[in-house]
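Chapter summary example.
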Amino acid sequence: YLKKAARLMMPALMDTAYIGKQVGQNGRSAARFFYWWEAYAKTLPTHPEVSLLCHLENAADIAFPTYGRGGAVMRGAFEPGKSGTGYLSRKTDESGRNYVFFPTEGNVAKKEGTVEFWLKPLNDLAAYRYRRVISSGSYNSPEEFFLWLDAQGLTFSNRIGQAATTLAATGLTWKPGEAHHVAITWGDDGFALHVDGRLKQATRVPSPLALDETLIVGDPSNGLDAVVDELKVSKTVRRDFDGACAAVTPPPVSDLRAVACGRGNVRLTWTAPLPDASNGVTGRYLVKYYTESLNEQNWAEGEDVPCAFAPGTAETPEVMLVKGLPLKRLWFSVRIENERQFQSPLSNVAAAMVE
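The structure predicted for these 355 residues follows.
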């Protein structure tokens, strides 16, 4: 009965006693407020790999997430997101203050982890200017991180003192009302920014994640005008987001073959994969070769081979003649990029001795 009463009362208590001391006024007091219910928090379910999982369905879901320490809503609304409803940060008055926050203690680790969520802008990207999506700390803090959305795309920044790391995902062709998966990872290998399962940019310089007492979802100053849904913080660096993005990822080519045919030439053959029922395979082929076996880690280092034709209908045989290659053993791979710029996993790798 005590637990049931706590679930009913906590959102109201947080909204009145806690919010007045939130970010920009007295963040330390705000963070300590969460320990008021420490005895209850110890009974919450835990997960070996996930430190925070919140579906952002409503205020009660934010106060009592599936895993992790609960947060609170500083105004805002709940609108359709990727799955059910998500949180909409929209400026409602001159003071802004329209966001969700969680304590970072116990929810986010500085040394290693992954933050991921679905983001659904309500407007064309051209309408956005430095709108914060998720952040911790502020301009006046000794350390801060933030991810913002603007007309160029997404920008992630992590600053500790004077040392800063910046990553960007530009050239996004998002449309209003589309939900897209976004993930930030950090650890011994550095930082990485993924969008819809694709690695957009990474740095190999290791650095801890800059954290204040609170993790903020939404833009406290201007409102985000976008729905954030399915917030998840993992304890480790995740690299496989196929499950999260399966609905928008084209299927891979699985039967690529490479045969040398004349001096400096190789004939590539494969079968157009069966299209996924939700998105098909319309778009283009991306073909590369390299002097060693291709994989996701060295794909960017491979040499591009322009492909003059678009993917055919399901199970269509595809043939491509590549000319003017260096005379050595080469490895080839193909992937599909559909019209929404989602890329398939790499095909199998085919090798040929070019003579």
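To summarize the output: The longest strand covers residues 223-234.
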